[in-house]
Write a structure and sequence with these properties.
By secondary structure, this protein is an alpha/beta fold. It has 2 domains: about 10-125 and about 205-320, Malonyl-Coenzyme A Acyl Carrier Protein, domain 2; about 130-195, Alpha-Beta Plaits, CATH 3.30.70. About 45% of the residues lie in helices and about 15% in strands. The protein is built from 14 helices and 11 strands. It has helices at about 25-30, 30-45, 45-50, 55-60, 60-80, 95-105, 110-125, 140-155, 175-190, 210-220, 240-250, 260-270, 285-290, 310-315, and strands spanning about 10, 90, 130-135, 160-165, 170-175, 190-195, 230, 240, 275, 300-305, 320. The strands form 3 sheets. Strands 2-1-9-10-11 form a 5-stranded mixed β-sheet.
Length: about 325
């Protein structure tokens, strides 16, 4: 009998989408294909047509993206789960819902309904397209915070750090003109600013109305004790009961994603092996940066990635694609 792999699971969120995602898994598994169909019913959108045939404009629409990416993440988890005994899980923003389903805190069908609703509410929260987001790269936290403070002082517009991805990678969220100015100031300080193709200012107060409506659905859902800890976006620590997970998720839509703290909490809990499940490898590449490079000091960190059926097969054979 093969020894079970014991990593922490990582699930990506928006930005991991790509043309054809999840197709080979669905075409090899009736259960996986049915999960796509469930998501299409929940969202009332032709998700397979959008993502398998590569409609670029529609692929970025958060109403379609949220349920579709959740399907891809969880279909991959279902395929490899018999070979994995996770020590924990985490998901970046939207990906947190995949982590909750993988851990058994929420039923997969419930997660499909929630992500379809979340996508619709977040899209409707900014119908005029006033909000925007941008990645600030090659800047430390103090410089990123300084840029935000300068922009707010100059414009009196909403702007804040929405994602703490690594110690030198942040995402800002707010009014579009303020976001554009932040990108300009990032370049002036020797960094980079890249505006993101999103439908609004996510993880900011501009999502407050959407969060209020979404909270009712979260409270109505059936929450269960997870089979393994889930590390929460809002504070970075592990939660081990359904009530704690629900309370954290209630604040998630308007709170920053504290990804660096999540990885550091996992490391402090003894984690040295991570497995990312999603269409594109993003999170595994951030692990060493979040930890300040302990691998360079002689410590072995393992970050694997499974994104398609070839990856599933490798994982079941005791291998996966290393990303670090």
């Amino acid at each position: 009998m093969k020894q079970l792999i014991q990593p922490v699971l990582l699930f990506p969120g928006q930005g991991a989408q790509q043309t054809g995602m999840g197709r080979d898994v669905a075409e090899s598994s009736a259960e996986a294909m049915n999960f796509w169909k469930q998501a299409e019913r929940a969202s009332r959108l032709p998700l397979r047509e959008i993502y398998w045939e590569g409609d670029e404009a529609a692929m970025g629409d958060t109403r379609a993206l949220q349920p579709a990416l959740t399907v891809v993440n969880l279909n991959l988890w279902r395929e490899v789960s018999r070979q994995i005994s996770p020590l924990g899980a985490a998901g970046h923003s939207l990906g947190e819902f995949s982590a909750l389903a993988a851990a058994g805190a929420l039923e997969p069908a419930t997660v499909l309904q929630l992500t379809a609703l979340r996508g619709r509410l977040m899209a409707e929260a900014d119908p005029g397209g006033k909000g925007s987001m941008a990645a600030l790269l090659r800047l430390d936290e103090s410089l990123a915070a300084e840029i935000v403070a300068d922009v707010v002082a100059e414009t009196s517009e909403l702007l804040l750090i929405a994602n703490y991805n690594t110690p030198v990678q942040f995402v800002v969220s707010g009014v579009g003109s303020a976001v554009a100015l932040a990108c300009k100031k990032a370049k002036e300080r020797g960094g980079r600013g890249i505006e993101l193709k999103v439908n609004g200012a996510f993880h900011s107060p501009m999502m407050r109305d959407a969060a209020v409506e979404f909270a009712a659905a979260l409270r109505k859902a059936r929450w269960m004790k997870p089979r393994f800890p889930v590390y929460c976006n809002t504070h970075g620590r592990a939660a081990r009961d359904g009530e704690s997970l629900k309370e954290s998720l209630l604040a998630q839509m308007t709170s920053p994603v504290r990804w660096t703290e999540i990885i550091r909490s996992q490391y402090a809990d003894g984690v040295r092996h991570w497995l990312e499940l999603g269409p594109k490898s993003l999170l595994g590449r951030m692990v060493e940066a979040c930890l300040g490079g302990p691998k360079a000091q002689g410590e072995c960190l393992r970050c694997d990635f499974v994104g398609d059926m070839a990856g599933v097969t490798s994982c079941l054979c005791g291998r996966a694609d290393a990303v670090n």
